[in-house]
Amino acid sequence: MSTPNIVVIGTGMAACGASYRLHQEGVVSVMYDKNPYYGGHTMSFRYENGFLFDVGPHISFTKDTRIQELFAESVGQKYETIQIALNNYWRGYWPLHPVQLHLHGLPEEIIVKVISDFVEERSAPERPVRNYADWLYASFGKTFAESFPMQYTRKYHLTTAENMSTDWLGPRIYRPSLEEVLRGALSASAPQVHYITHFRYPSDGGFRCYLNKFVPMGNLKLNHELLSVDPRARKLSFSNGLVAQYDSLISSVPLPDLIRMIEGAPQDVVEAAQRLACSTCVLVNIGINREDISSAHMTYFYDEDICFTRLGFPHMLSARNAPPGTGNIQAEVYFSDKYKPLTGTPDDWIEPVIRDLRRCGLLREDDQILCRKAMLLRYANIIFDLERAEALKIVHGYLDDIGIAYCGRYGDWGYMWTDESFKSGELAAERALSAVASSI
């Protein structure tokens, strides 16, 4: 029996998971990527001045020992294990993360209101949870919900909590007991509770190095931008003129883009794909002449007059991410075609980010800025608005019908961490293998 011709579109974490699973079955997939480099959003860039930045904040905190071992092998066991430190910025205050467990040091008035509302909500009749806003009120009370997570939602998800489902939550937001809230209000040394405690990060080369083991398992074709998919003829057409056949197709392409490429896609599917919402992110990467910038690996910013939503500090993940004695800052500024379209260019956000870094005190007037770059992530985070579930069911149902196996954050259209993306690719590979076997 001949080896099946299984094609994977994309070369990021999910696509590499698919390639790895196929390799286990003796199948070498053909992997196409529109970029001149592999990795997708798992890519890392080192600029000419020595500063390295990943495409967004990437750390591996999986507790799945199989994935841990695979990633460790991929970097030759050369990785850092770091105890995570997270904090927040709110109106000039820097509470630890999550804020609900670290109210100590905030204005007395806000602490009293938060605790009073928290107690009142606990003693009130259970409210129906129809959306994320209802969940926040039920979990924390009015004052905390409106002062912290609802503000952050408008910056990060670009819509209101009333317009969001709770499908994405999982362990991401901690629901404390009254005792935990009180301890965090009374003491600066309250215990840290978070779904991330420790994480791993490659010692040299950035997060992309976690793909080292998997990329050689596929037949890599870079600079191949997919233009169209003919599911009846099982044919792919690329912008460079190549036309390729496939027996089974695995795609990590964002669903709205993929559906536009499929010849003969029904109108209801096209319209459903258009309703899927996702954020667009401008990443502003800054390098400066000192490393003592922050005590946290990541900081969340609630104030809506601060342009960035989150900051990461790559030199704190590995010393090799920046030249000796320097530090780097990565700022995330969010937009959405559906809710807050980006105007202008990514470079337009470099100076506003620098301005706001100075406003909050992370950049000093005498700091020398050694690197300033901006990049655009067309697809960043999935927005779990109230239209998502129904639209996604239509799109996924259609792809299932025509035999395209989807995977990854933008194929599954979910809130996926690194290990989940990799395993999503593995599952897509199994579906592709099953489809080939059933057609024989």
- Helical run tally: 13
Strand order of the largest sheet: 6-14-15-16-13-17
- Total number of strands: 18
Q: Which runs of at least 5 residues are low in confidence (pLDDT < 50)?
A: none
Mean pLDDT: 95
- Please give the radius of gyration in angstroms: 23 Å
Rough shape? globular
Characterization of the model:
- The structure is a single chain.
- The longest helix is centred in the last third of the chain and has 22 residues, at 418-439.
- This protein has helices spanning 13-24, 65-74, 108-123, 132-140, 142-147, 149-156, 178-186, 255-261, 267-275, 350-359, 388-402, 408-413, 418-439, and strands at 6-9, 30-32, 44-46, 52-54, 79-83, 86-89, 198-202, 219-221, 226-230, 235-238, 243-245, 248-251, 279-288, 298-301, 310-312, 327-336, 369-377, 404-406.
- Helix 1 crosses helix 13 (418-439), helix 3 crosses helix 4 (132-140) and helix 9 crosses helix 11.
- With 440 residues, the protein is an alpha/beta fold.
- The strands form five sheets. A six-stranded mixed beta sheet has the order 6-14-15-16-13-17. Strands 8-2-1-12-18 form a five-stranded parallel beta sheet. A three-stranded antiparallel beta sheet has the order 9-10-11.
- The model has no long low-confidence stretch (mean pLDDT 95).
